[in-house]
Amino acid sequence: MASNGEKGLIVSFGEMLIDFVPTESGVSLAEAPGFLKAPGGAPANVAIAVSRLGGRSAFVGKLGDDEFGHMLAGILRKNGVADQGINFDTGARTALAFVTLRADGDREFMFYRNPSADMLLRPDELNLDLIRSAKVFHYGSISLIVEPCRSAHLKAMEVAKEAGALLSYDPNLREPLWPSKEEAKTQIMSIWDKAEIIKVSDVELEFLTGSNKIDDETAMSLWHPNLKLLLVTLGEKGCRYYAKTFRGSVDPFHVNAVDTTGAGDSFVGALLNKIADDQSILEDEERLRKVLRFANACGAITTTKKGAIPALPSEAEVDSFLEGK
């Protein structure tokens, strides 16, 4: 890890869990003949994506004090992610999700969290020194669903911001986890104006705005004065970007997608890794477009293999992929 010791630290906050992925695509959970266990959870995926691209990252969250929890902590360590922010809960299990892979590689989820360890992280368990050392503090919205994790999330954001970190938000909507659509929208938007970088998917854009138009006007309805960059990812159609003084779109890379899990996290990790030490990129359209092209490539490569973490690319893999384009 010494080689990237000088780089700015990206701290990722939230959930890590185990996805059980069917051995056969295009079948329902009931019809699946068997399942493979795949470590996941968007914030953890982002932390590993950063590390794999040569950046410095840490994960803050809570796992069950069980075999799965210790397995996940080991996966973070093995991938070079700092683990000083991980807590273990003796009374609750590590979260599980059963994922259906449709024939087009897209997913549906069934969650086991009642409650899972990640939901029980308390504000007094946070490693504040680690959070204060972040150049970028990244989070989602799943940690806002229930207390005490919600309070821990708000406290961590506040501490990171006070210490001068750039706040990055990917709502990562998982509707089945929320009590209602209204509650999901209210809570996701409750911290909206704090983030300086926000990434939403086209599906999340529709959900949050109530509009079925994926256009600049709809996207800009989510703009707020503290924002430096708003990104809308469009799956196989690339992404759109909105900054203070410019906006545009970056073309996709066409690949044979087998599993879209982790593609958005790979995209986010790539972006954060490139801007952690040079935020001036956010004000320079030409350089930002290069970074987003690189991030699009990371996302595309991630869809070509099953499972999120095994599919996250290294810098060398992305470079050789781009050379071939």
Short description:
It is built from 10 helices and 13 strands. The chain is of the alpha/beta class and 325 residues long. The chain has a 9-stranded mixed sheet with strand order 5-4-1-8-9-10-11-12-13, sandwiched between helices.
Largest β-sheet summary: 9 strands, mixed
Order of helices and strands: EEEHEHEEEHEHEHEHHEEEHHH
The whole-angstrom Rg is 18 Å
Tell me the β content.
Answer: 15-25%
| Total count of helical runs of at least 4 residues | 10
Report the CATH architecture: 3-Layer(aba) Sandwich
Termini distance?
Answer: 31 Å
Described by the principal axes of the CA atoms, the overall outline is globular
Find the CATH topology.
Answer: UDP-N-acetylmuramoyl-L-alanine:D-glutamate ligase
Helix content: 25-40%
How many domains? The number is: 1
CATH C-level class is: Alpha Beta
Full CATH superfamily name: Ribokinase
* Nearest-integer average pLDDT: 95
Give the strand order of the largest sheet, numbering strands 1, 2, ... along the chain: 5-4-1-8-9-10-11-12-13
Structural class: alpha/beta
- Enumerate the spans where pLDDT stays under 50 for 5 or more consecutive residues: none
Strand tally = 13
GO molecular function, one term: ATP binding
GO cellular component, one term: cytosol
Domain Carbohydrate kinase PfkB: 9-313
Pathway: Glycan biosynthesis; starch biosynthesis
